[in-house]
Specification:
The complex is a heterotrimer.
Chain A lengths: L5 H22 L5 H9 L3 E3 L4 E5 L5 E3 H14 L3 E4 L5 E3 L7 H10 L16 E2 L14 H11 L14 E4 L13 E8 L2 E8 L11 E8 L3 H15 L10 H8 L1 H14 L9 H9 L19 H10 E3 L5 E6 L10 E3 H14 L3 E4 L5 E7 L3 H10 L14 E2 L14 H10 L3 H7 L4 E4 L13 E8 L2 E8 L11 E2 L4 E2 H17 L8 H8 L1 H13 L1
Parallel strand pairs in A: 6-7, 7-8, 16-17, 17-18
Antiparallel strand pairs in A: 1-2, 2-5, 3-14, 4-5, 4-13, 8-9, 9-10, 11-12, 12-15, 14-15, 18-19, 19-20, 19-21
Helix pairs in contact in A: 1-2, 1-4, 3-11, 6-8, 7-8, 15-17
Chain B lengths: L8 E8 L5 E4 L4 E2 L8 E2 L3 H13 L3 E9 L8 H8 L4
Antiparallel strand pairs in B: 1-2, 1-4, 1-5, 2-3
Chain C lengths: L2 E5 L2 E3 L4 E2 L11 E5 H12 L3 E7 L16 E6 L6 H12 L5 E6 L6 H7 L3 E5 L3 H10 L8
Parallel strand pairs in C: 3-4, 4-5, 5-6, 6-7, 7-8
Antiparallel strand pairs in C: 1-2, 1-8
Classes of the chains: A alpha+beta, B alpha+beta, C alpha/beta.
């Protein structure tokens, strides 16, 4: 895992001090709320319905056991004993007081954490494949690149007051587990004629006008990465719209200018503004790569204990995946306990998981954009012990990738922007489909729920997407089908008129029934069936049934 | 603030600047207790908008809103009910 | 409200006299004006040695790209501190057009932006008198620790 240098430590410390002064100036009346808002947002502090909300950065989704323990402590000391893991691999606290935030930041800094650029119109925390460095398919480990981009983007003097937020994701294999194509910039490491470089995608995003990112560079030399990113950001900062918040993302700019024009402008600026000092040297890269070495000898061999336990087997089949190196496994820790808010973890769960990670996963934990956690390297012989320990803290729900593994935004229960609640919907779905055999039979499916058009719950890219709306004061839920956020990223299609909360579960049941009726075999998953059968069939079944 | 407001009766609500907690305007001060909230009639809106603005300037509160009430004094919108009662699950 | 000029921790009076009327051109050896005034009075203004031009943050630097070497001062006036365009404009000016004169920031700017503006190439700041303390705080807090070159 990456360890802070002295410089990193000092920068975070200075930022903490600066923010405490900003809070003081705000409370003393030297900053108006209008002035303070962008400053607090750049430090991850929102105002929600009931309270402030602090979003803490988990750079590229990687946590140490000490950090997870600290997050638990913070939730106990300054919040209500829980935290919420987000779709950008961060964590949110829902109840901090403004006055306490400087103290929280100080505590975070002690474990090399911060809330810098987790919100605001700047370059946000970089997201990454949660299997980085531990899957067989990748070209190389993308994490060093995330760290390079993290440094470059932190307090960038030119790009801290952009037209709108800016999100970057990095992946390194054919499989996209980071929803790369719905980011402002998506980077994929590829190999071409023996050399590794980047494919560069620009202009993806969700929100009220969803777009899939377009490839503007087929192969970018690795050493030119930062100069190329500067060129994109520079064009965006200058030409991105500032007259309308809903048209301010780079996805709109690329659509207004056209792909070719944007690409030409970026290429032109890349040449004109080329900064030698931004070219990445081999030694620099090697130095950063050292921080991401495997914490064990790759030749270690280990077998899974032969224990006859049905539940252990179910969990293993569902939540344990092959590691890049055979002696270890990847353990998915589901934060989708039946009937609980997706992505929430209690202080006790965080503390215990921190212990489990320390004991069994070389102290490492990862956060996925699907709001689950990962123990990245568990020795096969320890799998049973890990399962037993996870079960004790209710983190062994065997539902990864199944219908109850929903993505869900906080919705109107917390969020000031929401038009409807989303957590109660996910709870209903999870209660309704929690039967293990039933959900296993339904198979791979992704339900994603947002409480408003801003799409924090990724509904556009859910196989089944649910969008909560306000229809004359009543909550109402619109369903879209066929979305996907993997290597075949696709925006879902709205199936028809929306449903009230009490009709929604039966509507989802109908959709599942249509899928099952049209399935060729058990390998045939929801998205394959949908792509083959088409939306009309689903629409017909859904609305005919509901009208009869 | 008062744009598009429906109905005749309202509360003035906001979040406490320092703590973020939901507060209601009672007489001359802010209270966490809804029971102490002052009912505002439509014709008083402008006056209370000024009060809200003044209290924002004094760094007491942020994000002031008018909460719409039905004729029998109950909070109408789900969002406002959630702000008052807390999360629903 | 009275304005002062801040350069690092040094406070001074504005040496540039603002004009918006051609009868005032001779009022001072150093004058400054809005871009519109420049476009309308280029011929006469060109003769002066020390001239400064003010660009609002929503105006493109391209409007003066052929005349850049004529100015001793280019001032970016922020309509709102959230409008980050000048940050890129300043970079263009310094890096691409190699402007060596003074660059000044004015308008709605916050002391919290001091380091960002300074690092992009701003030399001086036009701020309200009495607010310099906050700016100097930020100047002092800057320890030169950055991730970017």
């Amino acid at each position: 895992m990456y360890k802070y240098s002295e410089k990193d430590k000092q920068i975070v410390k200075n930022r903490t001090k600066e923010f405490s002064l900003q809070v003081k100036r705000r409370i003393d009346g030297y900053l108006t709320e209008e002035e303070f808002k962008p400053l607090r947002l750049m430090n991850g502090l929102y105002l929600q319905l009931h309270a402030y909300m602090l979003r803490v950065a988990i750079p590229y989704g990687e946590l140490s056991h000490q950090q997870l323990h600290k997050l638990a402590e913070i939730s106990e000391k300054y919040d209500k004993n829980y935290g919420h893991f987000t779709t950008r691999q961060n964590i949110q606290f829902n109840w901090p007081k403004l006055e306490d935030v400087p103290k929280i930041l100080e505590e975070l800094a002690n474990v090399e954490m911060h809330a810098i650029q987790t919100s605001g119109n700047c370059i946000r925390n970089i997201s990454c494949d949660h299997f980085a460095g531990i899957n067989k398919q990748e070209v190389e480990d993308p994490r060093p690149w995330c760290e390079i981009i993290r440094k470059w983007s932190t307090f960038h003097p030119e790009f801290s007051f952009l037209p709108r937020k800016f999100k970057i994701a990095v992946i390194a294999s054919e499989n996209d587990r980071a929803a790369m194509k719905v980011h402002d910039i998506g980077l994929r490491l590829i190999k071409k004629e023996g050399e590794t470089g980047f494919e560069v995608y620009v202009g993806g995003g969700q929100g009220r006008s969803p777009f899939i990112a377009k490839k503007i560079k087929g192969f970018l030399k690795k050493k030119h990465l930062l100069n190329y990113l500067e060129a994109i950001l520079s064009v965006y900062n200058e030409l991105g719209r500032r007259d309308n918040i809903y048209k301010a993302r780079i996805k709109i700019l690329i659509n207004e200018l056209g792909e070719k024009k944007l690409k030409d402008l970026v290429d032109e600026r890349f040449k004109k503004f080329f900064e030698k000092k931004l070219t990445l040297g081999v030694t620099e890269l090697e130095e950063i790569k050292k921080s991401f070495q495997l914490p064990f000898d790759k030749n270690i061999r280990s077998e899974v204990p032969k224990i006859k336990n049905k539940d252990f087997k179910i969990w293993r089949d569902q939540n344990v995946l092959n590691h890049k190196y055979d002696g270890h496994s990847i353990v998915m820790v589901s934060l989708k306990q039946y009937g609980k808010p997706p992505g929430d973890a209690s202080a006790l769960q965080m503390k215990s998981l921190s212990e489990i990670a320390k004991k069994y996963s070389y102290g490492e934990i990862r956060v996925t954009h699907e709001q689950n956690l990962v123990l990245p390297h568990v020795l096969n012989s320890n799998l049973y012990s890990v399962w037993t320990d996870l079960k004790k803290i209710k983190l062994a729900t065997a539902n990864i990738g199944l219908i109850t593994d929903t993505i869900c935004c906080p919705g109107m229960d917390y969020c000031a922007l929401a038009t409807a609640r989303s957590i109660p919907i996910s709870q209903k779905i999870s209660q309704h489909f929690k039967n293990q055999l039933l959900q296993k039979k339904i198979g791979k499916i992704k339900i994603k729920i947002s409480g408003c058009i801003n799409a924090c719950g990724h509904h556009h890219v859910g196989n089944i997407g649910i969008l909560g709306l306000d229809k004359n004061g009543e909550e109402s839920y619109q369903i879209s089908l066929g979305g996907s956020a993997d290597e075949k990223t696709n925006i879902g299609q709205i199936v028809g008129p929306s449903f009230t909360e009490d009709k929604l579960i039966s509507a989802i049941e109908t959709i599942i029934k249509t899928y099952e009726d049209n399935r060729l075999n058990l390998e045939d998953d929801f998205i394959s069936v949908f792509n083959r059968v088409g939306i009309d069939k689903f629409k017909q079944d859904l609305y005919e049934k509901n009208n009869s | 603030m008062a744009k598009k407001l429906k109905g005749e009766l309202f509360y003035l609500s906001a979040n406490d600047l320092k703590t973020g907690e939901v507060v209601y305007y009672s007489n001359k001060s802010w209270s966490k207790n809804l029971k102490e909230a002052r009912v505002i009639r439509r014709e008083e809106i402008e006056e209370f908008e000024r009060i809200a603005e003044l209290n924002e300037k004094k760094c007491k509160i942020i994000s002031p809103i008018f909460v719409e009430l039905s004729d029998d004094g109950k909070i109408k919108k789900l969002r406002d009910i959630i702000r008052y009662k807390g999360i629903t699950f | 409200m009275k304005k002062i000029i801040l350069n690092k921790a040094k406070v001074s009076k504005n040496e540039y006299f603002f004009i918006d009327n051609d009868s005032e051109i001779k009022k001072s050896s150093k004058i400054i004006f809005f871009i519109k005034f420049w476009i309308e009075n280029k011929k006469t203004l060109k003769k002066k040695k020390h001239i400064g031009v003010i660009l609002d943050s929503n105006q493109s630097i391209d409007l003066i790209k052929d005349d850049i070497e004529l100015f001793s001062l280019i001032q970016f006036n922020f309509i709102t501190f959230k409008d980050g365009r000048p940050f890129t404009e300043i970079k263009k000016l310094r890096k691409y057009w190699k402007f060596n004169g003074e660059i000044r920031a004015s308008g709605h700017i916050l002391p919290d932006q001091y380091v960002f503006l300074n690092r992009c190439g701003v030399d001086s700041f036009e701020i309200e008198e009495g607010k310099e303390k906050f700016w100097i705080d930020f100047f002092k807090m800057d320890e030169g620790l950055y991730y970017q070159p």
